[in-house]
């Protein structure tokens, strides 16, 4: 995969990933895509089985939660994994004037500096 994060996206993901995968999947998968999907499915269901669905609110609610968890969980998890794999490649470094980030400890490097002041890691491989 050649797609790289910009420095801004990389810094933003550094913040997002701190809360962990489970939080991300819940917040950005289940509570967004999952709920939307469950609402759509429920609407379809109410049109199809109007009588029986109205008579079984508990079953409808349970199905709603199950759909949101399943659909949102899968989508959120896939999104988390793709963001994480892009994150591990580091930000794109095609702009020499932009702030760069240490690929070892993710500290921000001063402009024009190729050696990390906090861990000593260097973009140049010589010691
Ligand atoms: Zn470093």
Can I get a quick summary?
This protein is mainly α and 127 residues long. The protein contains four helices and two strands; from the N terminus they run H-H-H-H-E-E.
For this entry, give a set of tags.
binds zinc ion, about 5% strand, two-stranded antiparallel ribbon, about 60% helix
Characterise this structure.
A two-stranded antiparallel ribbon has the order 1-2. With 127 residues, the chain is mainly α. Strand 1 (100-101) and strand 2 (108-109) form a beta hairpin. The mean pLDDT is 83. The chain has two domains: 7-92, no CATH class; 96-127. The protein is built from four helices and two strands. The structure holds zinc ion. Zinc ion binds at residues 102, 104-105, 107, 116, 118-119, 121.
Radius of gyration: 22 Å
Q: Specify the biggest β-sheet.
A: 2 strands, antiparallel
Helix residue percentage? 55-70%
Taking pLDDT < 50 over at least 5 consecutive residues as the criterion, the unreliable ranges are: none
Structural class of the helix and strand makeup?
A: mainly alpha
How many separate helices? 4
Overall outline: rod-shaped
Count of folded domains: 2
What are the secondary-structure elements, in order, as H or E?
A: HHHHEE
Q: How confident is the prediction overall: mean pLDDT? A: 83
Q: What percent strand?
A: under 5%
Bound molecules: zinc ion
- Order of strands in the sheet with the most strands? 1-2
Helices and strands, with pairings:
Layout: H1 7-16, H2 21-48, H3 50-55, H4 57-88, E1 100-101, E2 108-109
Antiparallel strand pairs: 1-2
The structure holds zinc ion.
